Hints:
Blueprint: E1 2-6, E2 17-22, H1 32-39, H2 43-50, E3 60-64, E4 73-78, H3 87-103, E5 108-112, H4 123-137, E6 157-161, H5 165-190, H6 198-212, E7 215-219, H7 221-227, H8 230-236, E8 244-251, E9 260-264, E10 266-270, H9 290-305, E11 310-320, E12 331-334, E13 340-343, H10 350-363, E14 368-373, H11 377-383, E15 388-392, H12 395-408, E16 412-414, E17 432-433, H13 441-450, E18 458-462, E19 468-469, E20 479-480, H14 485-495
Parallel strand pairs: 1-6, 2-4, 2-5, 5-6, 9-11, 9-14, 10-11, 13-17, 14-18, 15-16
Antiparallel strand pairs: 3-4, 7-8, 8-11, 12-13, 15-18, 19-20
Helix pairs in contact: 3-4, 4-5, 5-9, 6-9, 8-10, 9-14, 10-13, 12-14
The structure holds ligand BES, manganese (II) ion and zinc ion.
Amino acid sequence: MEIKAVAGDIAKIRAGAIIVNHFEGAKRPEGEAAAVDKAIDGAISRLVKQGDIKGKLNEVTVLHGPGKLPAGRVVVTGLGKKKELTTNKIRGAVAETLRYLRQKNVTSAATIVQGGGVNGIKTEEAVQALTEGAVLGLYTFRRHMTKKENNNVEIKELRIVGREGAAMQRAIDSGQVLGEAVNWARDLVNEPSNFMTPSDMAAAARKLAGEYGLKVEVLEKKQMAELGMGGILGVAQGSQQPPRFIILRYKGSGASGLDIALVGKGITFDSGGIDIKPSEGMQEMKGDMAGGASVMATLIALARLKPKINVTALVPATENMPSGTAMKPGDIITAMNGKTIEVLNTDAEGRLILADALSYAKKLGAKAIIDVATLTGACRVALGEICTGAFTNDQALLDKVMAATRETGELTWQLPMFDEYREQLKSDIADIKNIGGRYGGAITAAKFLADFIDGTPWVHLDIAGTSETDKEKGYQVKGATGVPVRTLVNVILSMAKK
Length: 498
Ligand code: BES
Ligand code: MN
Ligand code: ZN
C-alpha cells in the first residue's frame, strides 16, 4: 500500500472513499467533516441529528452518492469521546474503517489527519498512528490459499490530507516501517511448523540481513556443542530438524560495544516433548517462536530508522518433539554458563533454550538484555490475553519499556520477582530444576531465567497470552499479533544517542 501526505482540501479529492470523523457527543460535524458536510448538502448533519451517526469509537458510516464530490463515498469514522482519544484508538478506528472499505472493494482512500491536535495528540503522532493502523489492520496471511478470486482486493493507495507536508511524510514513513516490521513478524508466526523449521527461520534471518544490511551468523549443532549449549541441544535432541542459533547484528553506533541484546524464544513447534501436550489446541504451538520473530523484526525497523545504538538479536531455534532420542523427565543437562538443570518437565523447554541464549548475550558483553518469549500458560492465566507479563531485575530499565508500551498501546503489566519464589526451583540433585510447582508459574519461570542473568540489567516479556488473537479487533487481525515489536523499537529509539 502506498501512503502519502497531500496538501489541500479533502472534499476535492478523487478516491474510492474519503474519510472524516465524528466525536461522540458532538452536536454537528466539526472541522473537515463540516466542509465535506457542506459539499453534500448537510447529509452528515442530518444523520448526526437523527442519531444514526453517534461518533462511538470504531463506528463506520458510509454515505453514497455524495453530490458535488469527486469521491465515490464519504465515510464518517467514530472516534469516541474527544477527551478519551488516544493514539491507540486512532490505530484501531482507522484499521476498522479501512477493512470495511476493502470488503466493499474500495481500492483507494483519502483521510484527514484523524485525531491530530485533539487531546494533546500532535499531528505527527496522529499521522504515524494512522499509518500503523492502516498497515496493521489490512494485514492478511493468504499465502496458502490457492483460490485467489474475491480474496485479493487490496487498498492500494491511502492519502493523508493535511498541512505539514514534509513532517507528515516523515511520520508516515516511520509508521510504515513499524507496521511492516510487525507484519513481517506476523508472517513468520502464522506460518505452520512445516514451513517454519529452525532452518527456515535461519534462512529468513539471512534474507533479512541481505536486504537491510544487517550482519548475520547462524550457529549449527557442532558450534553449539563447542560453546556448551546443553539447553538448546537437549531440547533439540528429540527432533529430526537440526537446531539453529541465530545471531543478527545491527550496528548503528560508532562505538564497538553491544548496547542491547534482544533474545527471542524460537521453538518452531512445541509438542511438549515426552511430557506431551494434550492434542486439543496443540496446533497453536506452531507460534512458539513468536518471541524470536519479534526480535528479528525489531532489527528490520532499526536498520530502516538507523538509531545510533548497537543491538543484537539472539534466537535459539529448535522444535520440541518426543522421540526415542528425546530428553526424558529427570534428565540433567548443563547450560552454557555451566549451571546444571534437572529437567523435570520436558514441556518447560523455553527456559532451557533461553538459559543458553541469555548466557550467550552476557558473553557478548551486552549492557542490557530484553528477552521475549511465549513462555508460560500461567502468564496467560494470570493476565489473560490482554497484557504481556513483564519481569525485571532493574526497575529503571523496565520503566523505560513500560513508557514505550504506553505509546505503542501494547499493554503490559509487571509481575513480582521476590526471592522467595526461587525456593520453588531448588533441585535435590542439580543446581536448579526447570519447574516450580503448580502456583505462580509465570514468576517461577522468570526466576529460572534470572539465574542465567546475574547482574546485567534485564527485562523479560512473557507473551504467551498476547502473541496471537482469535478475534479481529482494531488493528489486530486473527492470528499472530506481532507483539511487542513496536514497543521494542520505541524503547531502543528512546535509548539511542541523539
Ligand atoms: N510454549 C509453552 C507456553 C504457552 C502456552 C505459550 C500456551 C502459549 C500458549 C511453554 O513451553 C510451556 O509448555 N509451558 C508450560 C510450563 C510448565 C510445564 C511448567 C506451561 O505453561 O504449561
Ligand atoms: Mn512447552
Ligand atoms: Zn514452549
